[in-house]
Design goal:
- The protein is 56% helix and 18% strand.
- With 176 residues, it is of the alpha+beta class.
- The strands form 2 sheets. Strands 1-4-5 form a 3-stranded antiparallel beta sheet.
- Helix 2 runs antiparallel to helix 3.
Length: 176
């Protein structure tokens, strides 16, 4: 009896027939849902792009801030480099001072090597080069028979740059 009872409980269902109006209503609902999903996808993609741009800008700002701070720190040591260069220019000629001068030159070389590792470069200017106000500061304008108007006569103080940023312009004498 249990088998017969189970058979009785199972009713054969006839497939439901859908009218064209039902199909059209379902199709409209599906189209609306797809339009909403596409809008959500576009919004998500736009937000992701916006966040990526924001992150890139923050990284650039942080890099720039770090470079500015590094430039300020290096500026603290530039007078020491200048003093060591002056000491080597004015070294005594006697042999007893030769070891002292070599020691000063070694210290200066170590400082320059450390600065080079931090991407600090000397602004290369020689007498006879044209004056460029973007990386040079004219301390004097003097008459000169040797140099033409606007040429550097002498570099008084070496200039330095950190990557592409000038951290100290070169101080020069300029011919007029």
């Amino acid at each position: 009896m249990t088998k017969e009872k189970k058979k009785e409980d199972i009713k054969e269902e006839t497939p439901k027939t859908y009218t064209q109006a039902d199909i059209d209503a379902y199709q409209t609902a599906l189209d609306d849902a797809q339009a909403v999903a596409e809008q959500y996808l576009e919004d998500l993609q736009r937000e992701r792009a916006s966040f990526a741009n924001y992150k890139r800008r923050v990284d650039q700002d942080n890099q720039l801030t770090a470079e500015i701070q590094l430039g300020k720190s290096i500026n603290l040591f530039l007078p020491v480099v200048d003093d060591l260069e002056r000491a080597l220019k004015n070294q005594p000629e006697d042999m007893a001072s030769k070891a002292w001068a070599e020691g000063i030159e070694l210290i200066l070389q170590k400082l320059r090597t450390a600065m080079a590792k931090l991407d600090v470069e000397v602004i290369d200017i020689k007498p006879g080069d044209d004056f460029d106000p973007t990386d040079q500061e004219a301390l004097t304008h003097e008459e000169s028979e040797t140099y033409k108007d606007g040429q550097v006569i002498e570099v008084i103080q070496t200039g330095y740059k950190l990557k592409d940023r000038i951290i100290r312009p070169a101080a020069v004498r300029v011919a007029k």
